[in-house]
Amino acid sequence: MGTLIHPDQVGFIPGRQAYENTRRSADLLWLASSRNTPSLFLSLDAEKAFDRAEWPFLFTLLSHLGFPPPFVRAIQALYSIPTAQIIISGTDPLPFPIRNGTRQGCPLSPALFALFLEPLLQHLRKDPHIAGFRMGDQEYKLSAYADDILLSLTRPLSSLPAVMQRLDEFSRLSGYKVNINKSEAVAMHISQGDLDTIRGAYPIRVSPTTIDYLGIALPSNPGDLYDKNFPPLLTQLKKDLESWSKYAISWVGRVHCIKMNVLPRLLFFFQALPCALPSEDIRLLQSTIDHFIWQGKRHRIARATLYRPKDTGGLGLPCLFSYYYAAQLAQIVAWHSPKGLHRWVDLERTLMHPDHPHLWIWLPKPHRPLLRTTCPAILNSIRLWDKLATKCDLTSLPSPLSPVLRNKDFLPGYNARAEDGWMGTTIRRLCQLFPGGIFIDQKDPIISGSSANTNPLPYFQLRAFANQRHIKEAALTPLTPFERLCQGSATLAP
Fold first, then answer.
1. Which residues form the Reverse transcriptase domain (predicted)?
2. What angle do CA 112, 115, 117 make, to 5 degrees?
3. Helices 263-272 and 225-244 sit at what angle, rounded to 10 degrees?
4. DSSP letter string over 355-368?
5. Which residue, 445, 428, 429, is CA-closest to 479?
6. pLDDT tens for residues 71-87?
7. Residue 60 vs residues 6, 35, 54, 462: alpha-carbon distances, Å
8. If you compute the radius of gyration of the chain from its CA atoms, what whole number of angstroms results?
9. Is-above-0.85 flag for pTM?
10. How far apart are CA 383 and CA 374, in angstroms?
11. Which of 161, 175, 242, 409 lies 20 to 30 Å from 304 when distance is taken between CA atoms?
12. Which residues make Cβ contacts (< 8 Å) with residue 66, sequence separation at least 6?
């Protein structure tokens, strides 16, 4: 599925998550704000999305995508003469045929719908009249989680007519329909005259401040991201805990309430909000949870004991700080993905150019090149990494994953591009310098197949750098579990 569905679509595709689109959208909102780019972020409301998929279009699409005929026939068999009936008390149920839509409850439905929607997303991406945010060699026009589509448009006056034309064409072919009346948008740096033109031509609800996408309020002012989202969630959680306190729930049952209801809601926000959460707020919520667990009475068991898994004598009560840190560190691991796998990672690498976050963070602070971005999401991840890297034994200093290039200890490569290998080789990190514990030989295919083979000077420069005591020790240091996780995120990204 990952090869058929573009990375812009993150719904129901293995290895993709909803937070990817909220983080990318927050990055683009910051980009539009910092560059004063006239832009419109439009959230499309699909009318009965899964129920409007026309079967002839879907089956033809599967054949066009190269699915084997037996597979297509098997899918057609699942949709052969299905019926439904409405049960009303006192009347006999009358079955009626179903002629469109994906089957409710069928495990195949999400994947089929993602395939069904992909032609529309492809046409929106490729239409030259629809302008998105161009960064480097990439253009960012849309994000999708199943039928939840967010368009990020520049030049909205010329882009909107093309968008509406593509939606109308796809609707006639497939049955998919967008409720323009219920679609919402947030406008940034658009003149009042242009806004009046947009409102007059399309019944879109345009807000100057905030748009809701995937349960997250995305504000036009990046500094409001925390205030628009986390305080309302805290207030709602406190109300829920207070209302549940009235019921006779066992002590263990209260722990399960936290694990099954409160934690999933918090975890989504921990992942989806690319901004710092004040420690005071997390502590306050943890105290509120403790008050609920103990029904306002004195604690009889230490909090650390409750946090332990059941098999080590605890109850598995969620430690909110641990979940918050884990959710944020998982995105640092994703920074190490290959180009093209995650669109938000590609965008943030471009924003940090000429450095890359998955290389830059492994350098000790005094050796880091000047950071060339003020993107809040990137800065938040870096601050969290610097706070936890040594405190939680995530890495050693210097790390074996430290880059060779853009490293102040290696001046010959300091001005090179971060994504390049040294002199055309694939050597990018210290851990690659000593395969088998011995410095890489000049006859090694990595060296002999590069420009360093014709000019021995770069090889000797690299050897002199690698033989420094602290560099050699770092290169030969075993990787920590977190470093292995980053290395295994894929092959180490260039």
1. 1-218
2. 110
3. 180
4. S-HHHHTTS-GGGP
5. 429
6. 999 998 888 888 888 88
7. 19, 44, 10, 57
8. 27
9. yes
10. 12
11. 242
12. none
